[in-house]
Every structure is written in structure tokens, then in C-alpha cells.
Amino acid sequence: MRQPHLSSVIERRLLVNYRVAPEAAARLLPEPLRPQLVRGYAVAGICLLRLGDVRPVWTPKALGLRSENAAHRIAVEWDGPDGVETGVYIPRRDTASRVNAWAGGRVFPGEHGRADFEVCETSRRIRVALATRDGDTRVDVTVDVSDALRGSLLFADLTEASRFFRRGTRGLSPTRSGHLEGMELRTDAWRVEAGRVRAAASSFFDDPGRFPPGAATLDCALVMRNVPVGWRPLPSPPGVPHTAAPANSGR
Fold first, then answer.
1. Within the chain, how many helices (H) and strands (E) appear?
2. DSSP 168
């Protein structure tokens, strides 16, 4: 099936970012992907995303769908035909939407597991908690919107962080058949706000089997709100073998 280009609005995108020991991140990546390093650290995190008006670009806005979604991600790079390319590897995607869970890997790239979400949100504070239906992953994050990015060892300020994540808008996800599918976020209205993490728990990043003690440390948070975006399917990077870890497995 030919996968369509999609249109949507990011109603809320909460990026909770960890600085990670490069060797720990590398163990989770299929070849030829490698961790993208910032100040000697790999960059990983959780994207907690509420999308509105999701639809193929040729359909009316009134037919768009709304959903809560989550993606665990690792910033990566690989050698492309024109030099080093960057993006994110997404070992796990989850959604509250039955439609997204069915359509992921069929209508659009990226297979999704099902999760139950609890959201409490104001203009200045965001809490998102989720538990996946397979029992593998739990997340509970509370972030205050802030006037500046403070305390990060990865990024000097909000401008530097925004620039980094804007370059990493290509997401690569493993499928159950063992290959990678890609999707690129595109927007002319990119804007982010700084966040201050009040509390964060993640069974993915707190798992010592994935990240030994000290290998993954909470670094910072960013918030995007009310940003119109498009999504474009992408081919896998050159040289990616069909041996990626299965989607949503307990890696």
C-alpha cells in the first residue's frame, strides 16, 4: 500500500530528554545507526504527543482525528550518500487511538502499541502518565513551562536545544517483520518553549537491563504547542539490514 502524506496540528508535544552513556545507547540501535553525540553524551527521551486534525493531506480538516501518543527515542546519525545524516530511532511507539494502532505500519509508517493515558494540563503545567496495554512500559511526567532552559548539560540554552531537535525530524521505527520504516515531520511554524521537570518516572529509562545505574540521566524538557505540521513517509537509510529489533518488544 502506498502510504499517504499526512497533515495535522501538534496540540502538545512534550519532549523529556535524557543524557545517556554512548555505549548504552549504541546497544539499542540496529546497524548502521549510531548515537548522535552532544558534549560527549547520547541524547534520548520520551515524546508525549497530542495530535489533532490528523488526516491525509487531500481530505477535509473536518475528517481529522485526535489522539494521545508516546514515542521513546534516541538521536541517531548514519552515513548517507551525501554525508552524515541525522534523525531519531524510535524503538517504541504507543497510542490511545485504536485507529492509530491499526493504521501504523499499514496506512502510515511506524507500528504502534496501545496505551492508556492520563493527562492534566494547564497553560503553565503539563502532566502526562501512561501505561501500555502489554504491561511493558509506564511513564509519569510533570513539567512546568519555563521562561528559559536551565540546568541542562546537553544544551547551553533554548535556542541551541531547539536547533538540535529541529534537525532531528526524521523518525525511524522497527516493524514486527524486522525492518525500519521512516517518517519525517515538516513545518514552517517550528517553535518550542523551555520546560522545568518537576517529576519524571519511566520504566524504559529506569530499567537497569537497558541502562545500568548512571547510564541515563534526566537532562531537560521542551514543549511545543499548537504547531501545524505535515508528515512524509521516508525510505530506510541506505545500508540498514532487515534485522532491527521487533517493534514494541521488551528490549
1. 3, 14
2. -
- Could you give the C-alpha distances from 232 to 2, 4, 54, 195, 247, in angstroms and in order? 12, 7, 13, 28, 20
CA 247 to CA 251: how far, in whole Å?
Answer: 9
Distance between CA atoms of residues 134 and 113, nearest Å: 8
pLDDT over 90 percentage in the chain: 73
* 23 backbone dihedrals φ, ψ, rounded to 5°: -70, -30
Distance in angstroms (rounded) separating the CA atoms of residues 234 and 166: 17
- Indicate the average pLDDT of the chain: 90
Please list, in sequence order, all residues whose beta carbon lies within 8 angstroms of the beta carbon of residue 181, skipping any fewer than 6 positions away: 105, 109, 110, 111, 172, 173, 175, 233, 236
Residue 54 has pLDDT above 80, yes or no: yes
Least confident of 99-113, 118-132, 154-168: 99-113
Q: Which three cell numbers stand for residue 183?
A: 517518517
Give pLDDT, residue 1.
46
Question: Cα-flanking dihedrals φ and ψ of residue 100, to 5°?
Answer: -60, -40
**Residue 163 DSSP code:** H
Instruction: Please give the backbone phi and psi of residue 148, each rounded to the nearest 5 degrees, phi first.
Output: -155, 155
In the chain, the percentage of residues whose pLDDT exceeds 70 is 90
Report the C-alpha gap between 145 and 148 in whole angstroms: 9
Least reliable range by pLDDT among 109-113, 171-175, 231-235: 109-113
